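Usage

Read records sequentially. Each one opens with the input sequence:
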Amino acid sequence: MVTTRMRVFLVALVGVLVLPLSVILFPAAARAGDTEQQIHDIDAQLGDAITSATFIQAGSVDDFLTQFQAQYPPLAQAVKQAASGYQGVAASATGQLKTYADQLAQATNDMSSQLDGMAAAISAQSSDQLQSSFTGFQGAVHQYLSAAGAYNTYIKANPSIDHPLLTVYLALFIASLVLTAGALAFWLMAKAPPGDLAADRIKALRLRIVLVSLFPVAGSGITYFWYRHALTSGGHYVVLYGPVALGFIAFLAWIGRYRTTVARLRAQPPALAGGPQFQYPAPPGQYPAPPGQYPAPPPPSAPSGYGFNPYSGRSEGPGGGPSNPEGR
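and closes with the structure output:
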């Protein structure tokens, strides 16, 4: 006989097996923060290129000229790529994000122009032009750093602006928690007196609804926190469509089954106290019936022809007379 505890264990076991299976069968990998991630990648590449430009802090003119000639080609290419990347981001962004992308694109364009000016000044051997271009390059770098700092402050203060999915995953996670909390309260309110099989059945169904509601909570919770981690550290995250979708479908299915079962139990006549009741006439296989419901069957009669008269104390013949002439 399958008990309620065994059913609960089987449901929990299926949950443990289905959750990782759903992760495998229904994954949806995505990159966290498209716009911010693009800006982050462009800034990282440009930062590495500027850090490698040691000519900026050269101690002498000769060192400056030597280092600049070696470092100018890769630095100029990195700055141009950054400017092109920021322009692409600005073209697809909207609102305040577009404003910051435009500022970053303008600063990198200025850096590229000043680098080309320094290269031209060195070719022309014009110290005045070189000094002017170098000063302009430093100003463009400071302009870029200022725009990047303002952008970072804005993103930290408004994390959902660039990440609308963060709000979606959080809302889904909260909705799943509310659903589970309601199912748990619904189960705790169930009363199952000892011996009441119908109430015990109803409470077991409510517990199954609670267990099924944990699937959307697990799927949406893992997705939300994984996405938040991907926003800060970069990389990809996985949307667990399987546990969420299957969990909600199973939850609705168990709600329907619960309502059907409760309606069927309420349609049955209530059992009377005192155990099983007999009917009149009693069904086959339940004889003898309880005393007082109908007359008891007569006692078995003696065989035809001979019998014993309890009033005479002797045997009688077929007509009620003595069985032999002597009366014995």
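Summary fields computed downstream for this record:
- Confidence is low (pLDDT under 50) at residues 23-27, 272-280.
- The chain has two domains: 4-32+163-267, 35-157.
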